[in-house]
Amino acid sequence: MTTITRILFFACVSLLTGNVIKAQDQDLLKLVDSSKGTEPAWAAAAFKSTRVINGQSMELLGKGVLDVRILHRFGLINDGAKELFGLDQASMRIGLDYGITSNLTVGAGRSTLNKELDGFVKWRPIRQSVNGGSPVSVIWVSGVTVHTMPWADTTRKNKFSSRVAYYHEVIIGRKFSNAFSLQLSPIFVHRNLVTNADDENNTWALGIGGRLKLSKRTAFVVDYHPILSGREPGTKDPLSVGFDIETGGHVFQLHFSNSTGMNEKAFLTGTYDDFWKGDIRFGFNLSRVFQVGKKH
Amino acid sequence: MNQRIRKGIIAFSFLLVTAPLLAQDKYFTKSGSIGFVSKGNIETIQANHRSVTCVLDSRTGALQFAVLMKGFEFKKALMQEHFNENYVESDKYPKAEFRGQVVNNSDIAYTKDGEYKAHVKGKLTLHGQTKDVEADGKINVKNGKLVANSVFTILMSDYNISIPNLVKENMSNTVTITVNCTLDPLKS
Asked: How far apart are CA A68 and CA A45, in angstroms?
């Protein structure tokens, strides 16, 4: 009797164990834990473009990507119908940016305003990760501008260096959610030559850039640069609001702004219109990217 | 020794011995490759993934795949970004999974080198949607390893992956998926 009980007992155990093995078959993938050893997952596309509107955004180009950028700023909308609400006047910048690595972008451009050339280097030492890495991205931008206008004062001894200005910027940004990204960017501009003897050569500003996605391919963006010190007399804080519209390889940034300058030196030291008094211009940034180099 | 206890020990040892034996019927890889191509009028979308997880239970024919969507590599960086952000929404649906069965499992001699035809049926979960999928493939048994190949097609619309109207003419709704995995015996 007891022998039979024992055999029955073991039969039961075998059946149970068999069931356990069979149950494991239901989820074979659990046998090989695939979550281990995965690479860091970066927070991608905090902004649609490498610029919030005027200022640099926390985004860089991918490796081997060439970005052709055509920027327009029109006249004041409140000039009225006679000037077709500012569209009769256009100031533009044409530029090329290139991604040397996924963390290093360089770019150059020329603006019609002051016939100015500009170039920059943008480097991302810290990148926001969504699986336990850094909560923010940190980006360093350094640039130089050279205006090529005839000398305003031909009586003094003019040196090439007088045409040159520099800017340096640190961007700290975070993609908080799929829809919302925010970045702060202290920025310093040094002009070798200023208009008047008592004008400041050094200007400090704090860039504040935000994005709110409205749909998969459109977003509302704000770009604000309060001047902290060294304000060029008569200038106002540049403020721009607009929409990013993305279609395949193009990004259209349509916006309203009080600034005309399309490089950091130009919009931080040359924005004379007051946004809050309605001195607003329409403008757009057109970006088209091409994968010209190898991604790996 | 008491005979009953001896019988018990024999039965128990039998269990101990058979359990690992059963487990060795499983094959796996973490570095399988899956590629897809979608050929539209203007835009060809193509990507490859080289760290696909796949497990096959040769005893039951159960076959499962797991793919991290962000692992698909595109030639164009922006295309990869759009794939993850706008099409498959990788943040919301990070993984694609296939859970199915080799229907003709008994035709395949997993211990004997050779090439065998395999017919697989199961459910593919992608972009939060689960659909039945059927595919023909081949399993090549060689030196205790399995090389599994298959090509099949799915429709993006089946998985609620929408193509914006603006580019609808340029892109195709049909996606051809190519699977190529080398499976090693799973030692547990």
From this structure: 18
Chain B residues close to A62, C-beta within 8 Å: 77-78, 80-81
Using CB atoms, which residue from B8, B57, B78 is nearest to A6? B8
CATH 2.40.160.40 for the A65-291 domain, yes or no: yes
Q: Taking the domains of chain A in order of start, what are their residue ranges?
A: 65-291
Is B16 among the domain residues? no
Q: Which domain holds residue B90?
A: 24-185
> What CATH number did the domain enclosing B105 receive?
2.40.128.110
Q: Does B7 touch chain A (CB under 8 A)?
A: yes
**Contact between A6 and B85 using a beta-carbon 8 Å cutoff:** no
Min Cα–Cα distance to chain A from B70, Å: 8
Q: What is the pTM of this model?
A: 0.79
- Put simply, the answer to whether A44 touches B81 (Cβ < 8 Å) is yes
pLDDT digits (tens, 9 = 90+) for A65-101: 999 999 999 999 988 888 899 888 899 999 999 999 9
Assess if residue B134 is contained within a domain.
yes
Question: Per-residue b/e over A206-217, b at no fewer than 16 CB within 10 Å?
Answer: ebbbbbebeeeb
CA A69 to chain centre: 13
* Residues 6 or more apart in contact with residue A35 via CB below 8 angstroms: none
Higher pLDDT, A25 or A127: A127
For chain B, the domain total comes to 1
ipTM at complex level: 0.71
Strands B145-155 and B44-57 turn out to be unpaired
* Residue A39 pLDDT exceeds 80: no
Please determine, for residue A35, whether its predicted confidence score (pLDDT) is greater than 60: no
Interchain CB distance below 8 Å, B85 and A216 = yes
Give A91→chain B minimum CA distance, Å.
29
